[in-house]
Amino acid sequence: MSQHLYQFCPRCAHLLEDRLLAGKSRRSCPSCGFLHFPDPKVAVVGLIEAERQILLVRRAVEPGCGLWALPGGYMDADELPAAALQREVAEEAGMAVAVGELLDIFPMVNHGGASLGIVLAFHGWPIEPSSVPVAADDADAAEWFHAETLPSTLAFASTQRLLTRWCDQQKSSLLARRQAATPH
Ligand SMILES: [Zn+2]
Fold first, then answer.
1. Is this structure's pTM higher than 0.90?
2. Residue 4 confidence (pLDDT)
3. Which CATH number fits domain 1-38: 2.20.70, 3.30.230, 1.50.10, 1.10.1660?
């Protein structure tokens, strides 16, 4: 039995046992009938963009302590993803943001590679265009970065992947603008 599984019933404190249900072993309570279905954790991150810059926060907690990452965090049980992202960006960067399209869904894994859940990545932008980020909570710094000035080491593979894609988009839109400005 893996360590994270319940040993005692969270409802009645009776010793749990394994029960095979639809081909899967579930922790179950022979006394009150409780069945434990482990749920995936859901986290949200934001690619918050303004004036060709992207908002990053430096993490003050593990995992990735001291490294830059996209603002974000775990979704609460009573929240929808956009509201969770707005709360996290307000907490970590002191900024009110609007949340746009879903950009990607990543698997969330621990250092051992075990699946913990999923990460939803959204596009977003500050409600006040000239917002200055103020770090707090899980972040000890929050700053705007241009594609050319991004930190070389980032906290998570998902952050790296989203930012690489964003940088590629920046380069191609810059190229398109240059071509449009060139007289024919
Ligand atoms: Zn029970």
1. no
2. 56
3. 2.20.70
Q: Quick check: 165 pLDDT over 50?
A: yes
Domain boundaries, the chain: 1-38, 41-179
Cα–Cα distance between 52 and 83 in angstroms, integer?
24
Distances in whole angstroms, Cα of residue 132 to Cα of each of 61, 63, 126, 137: 22, 26, 10, 16
CA 61, chain centre distance (Å): 14
Q: How far is the CA of 41 from the centre of ligand 1 (A)?
A: 24
CATH 3.90.79.10 assigned to domain 41-179? The reply is yes
Nearest residue to 55 (alpha-carbon basis) of 133, 115, 160: 133
Q: What is the pLDDT of residue 113?
A: 80
Tens digit of each residue's pLDDT (9 = 90 or more) over 43-83: 999 999 999 999 999 999 888 899 999 999 999 999 999 99
Q: How far is the CA of 117 from the centre of ligand 1 (A)?
A: 26
Distance from Cα 15 to the centre of ligand 1, integer Å: 8
Residue 14 CA, ligand 1 centroid: distance in Å: 5
Average pLDDT over residues 156-176: 87
Tokens, residue 30: 């022979």
- Residue 13 CA to ligand 1 center (angstroms) comes to 6
